[in-house]
Design a protein that fits this description.
The protein has 323 residues and is an alpha/beta fold. It contains 10 helices and 13 strands. It has 3 domains: 1-100 and 200-220, 3-Layer(aba) Sandwich (D-Maltodextrin-Binding Protein, domain 2), CATH 3.40.190.10; 106-186, Periplasmic binding protein-like II (D-Maltodextrin-Binding Protein, domain 2), CATH 3.40.190.10; 222-323, Double Stranded RNA Binding Domain, CATH 3.30.160.40. Strand 1, helix 1 (14-28) and strand 2 (35-40) form a beta-alpha-beta unit.
Length: 323
């Protein structure tokens, strides 16, 4: 960390800038905090808009270049939508803080204001997510999924222009941008499980930057950390990525952490579900390690039910090399 300022790396989209400025405001509220500078970084996901990301091998499409700048020392802090961050972080990088979780659900925005069930037959629904396509196929097999890329304002503009009858976005992004009134329906996490870590902002730093880590750890929300520890552990155990239709949600209720997960075939023809809970012993507190163990246990239940074969089949069908 520079003695004069803290350099925060971020993408330049409206939502990414909102997240970075939110972290900036939280840091500035700390006594004796250094000045902050935002550094805009273009990622592969920003530059490559003509090919669906699910047709591209690998992962970290929206985070790799930012974390490379972090390890190179040209920035001090990386701010991410945590759902975009791979479970295996770059060497020398640590997840220093998870901010309080916004609404983790997916949201349907339709031109007419109709809900998913009310949309007409063969409605054109925009989404760039294989997970959303799979659960959409299960709930509305008649619907026509149409590729949708771009930042949130661009996607809404294309909806208004008539390119789609409806689009599916993360409720958290719409809320953070002051666009929650655009939502026609919040999709149930039971029927439409969200992406791992959806709604959580993750803040990374170098493992050897003690001064920056001290500042960032003050921003960490324990409940969010437990939830994403379980979800990311599940994802790591399944070796899933954006090419796998996997949804999961962990929730802390009193001293018990609950985790539900689902893997779905792209055509909606088959799904595998598993859930589990972990309660802290009396007088003890839940730890991220406890949460990670829960994630592994639920993943093992999915694997025992045939999740590996189901995911391999989906990758083969998409002609995408498994990470």
């Amino acid at each position: 960390m520079s003695a004069a300022r803290l350099r925060i790396g971020t993408r330049a989209s409206a939502l990414a800038l909102w997240q970075a400025r939110h972290v900036e405001a939280l840091l500035k509220s700390q006594s004796g905090a250094p000045g902050v500078e935002l550094v805009h970084i273009t990622t592969q996901g920003d530059a490559q808009r003509d090919v669906p990301l699910w047709r591209t091998a690998g992962r970290a499409f929206f985070t790799r270049e930012i974390d490379t700048a972090l390890t190179a020392g040209t920035i001090d802090v990386a701010v991410h939508s945590l759902k975009d961050l791979p479970t295996a972080l770059a060497p020398g990088v640590v997840l220093a803080a998870t901010l309080p979780r916004e609404d983790p659900r997916d949201a349907l925005v339709s031109r007419s204001g109709a809900s998913l069930a009310e949309l007409p037959a063969r409605a054109r629904i925009g989404t760039s997510s294989l997970r959303r396509r799979a659960f959409l196929a299960r709930l509305r097999p008649d619907a026509l999924p149409v590729e949708l890329r771009g930042n949130v304002p661009t996607r809404l503009e294309r909806l208004r222009a008539g390119d789609y009858d409806a689009i599916i976005l993360a409720a958290a992004g719409l809320t953070r941008l002051g666009l929650a009134r655009q939502i026609s329906q919040h999709l149930s996490p039971l029927e439409f499980p969200p992406a791992v870590s959806q709604g959580v902002i993750g803040v990374c730093a170098r493992a050897d930057d003690a001064a920056t880590l001290t500042l960032l750890r003050a921003l960490n929300d324990p409940a969010a950390r437990l939830a994403v520890s379980a979800e990311r552990s599940l994802l790591a155990r399944l070796e899933g990525g954006c090419q796998v239709p996997l949804g999961a949600l962990a929730e802390l209720r009193s001293d018990t952490l609950e985790l539900a997960a689902c893997v779905c075939a792209l055509d909606g023809s088959r799904e595998l579900r598993a859930r589990g809970t972990y309660s802290a012993p009396q007088g003890a507190r839940l730890t991220p390690a406890d949460a990670a163990a829960l994630g592994e246990r639920v993943a093992d239940e999915l694997l025992a039910g045939g999740a590996a074969a189901l995911m391999a089949g989906q990758r083969e069908a998409l002609a995408v090399t498994a990470p």
